[in-house]
Amino acid sequence: MVQQLSPSTIEDELLYPDSDGKPLADNTTQLRLIFTIKGGLDALFKDRDDVFVAADLLWYPVKLTQQEVIEQEEPQRQAPDVMVVLGRPKGDRGSYMQWKEDNTAPQVAFEILSPGNKKKDMETKFTFYQQHGIEEYYLYNPKKNRLQGWLRKGKNLKEITQMEGWKSPLLGVKFTTGEGDLVLFHPNGERFVDFVEVVEQRDRERVEKERERLEKERERVEKERERVEKERERLEKERQQQRAILAEDERDRQQSRADRAESDLQKMRERLLQLGIDPDSLS
After folding, report:
1. Could you give the count of Cα atoms lying within 13 Å of 87 in the half-sphere of its Cβ?
2. N or C: where does the chain have the smaller number of CB atoms within 10 Å of the terminal CB?
3. What is the domain-level CATH number for residue 114?
4. What number of other Cβ atoms are within 10 A of residue 69's Cβ?
């Protein structure tokens, strides 16, 4: 069944396309950092349904007026490398049309500088973010390992003078470039990692759990061996005690037989004497 599009939907697709035709990233470094930041923020807000995180999503802050449509004006738009919108639900979107989002502007934007970014383009981005409500803006230059940040003061974004160790007021994450790369840390101190690092960490944890399991099994076997050894010693001691008792019983029986033989011999001597026979003369 072919889906019927309403005139307003067709209008939105024509006026506010989901793509600007530009690639997500110009190089692997930029792509890695974008995915790491986006993934880390997704993990940070995984339990909150009112936080929307996106990467390279076109943001249209203002709906075109009818006159602007007639005059074929281009809508204002930018696609931050990563943006965070507090107060909006998670979910898939082709673009972020602010008038359809309770007029809530993204509060935090991240940009990873690439060779394809011109100075004029970055100035345009800055002006756009300042004009349309971004409260925190972070720009990282991988080539120079330089992180810059701006915080909203009234209507303007003011540069943060000391970015090393900076903690985002809205996100609670910390920044450092001390390792020669941009690294972000969760409020609990855990660092943002890319998917490969997540898998490696999971594998390390799996190996560590297996090692702990084997160690516990070794301890269990050792304890069982000690128990068996103690049981063997106990049984050996019991056998020795039983042998000693049997030996003592045997000695008692032999002594009893000897006593009876001696008694019988004495009675025989006495009987012979009664008959007038000297027992010694019979030997």
Report:
1. 10
2. N
3. 3.90.1570.20
4. 14
Identify whether 258 is part of a domain. no
Sheet holding 156-159, edge to edge: 51-55, 82-86, 108-112, 136-141, 146-153, 156-159
By residue count, the chain amounts to 283
Lowest mean pLDDT among 70-84, 87-101, 113-127, 244-258: 244-258
Instruction: Name which of 21-30, 225-234, 274-283 the model is least confident about.
Output: 274-283
- Residues 112-131 pLDDT 10s: 998 888 899 999 999 999 99
Q: Are 52 and 82 in contact (CB under 8 A)?
A: no
Give the span between the Cα atoms of 85 and 129, in whole angstroms: 13
In a domain? residue 119: yes
What pTM, to 2 d.p., does this model score?
0.69
Check: CB of residue 136 under 8 Å from CB of residue 169.
yes
Q: Which long-range contacts (CB under 8 A, 24 or more apart) does 171-177 make?
A: 171/41, 171/44, 171/84, 171/108, 171/136, 172/44, 173/40, 173/41, 173/44, 175/138, 175/147, 175/149, 177/140, 177/145, 177/146, 177/147
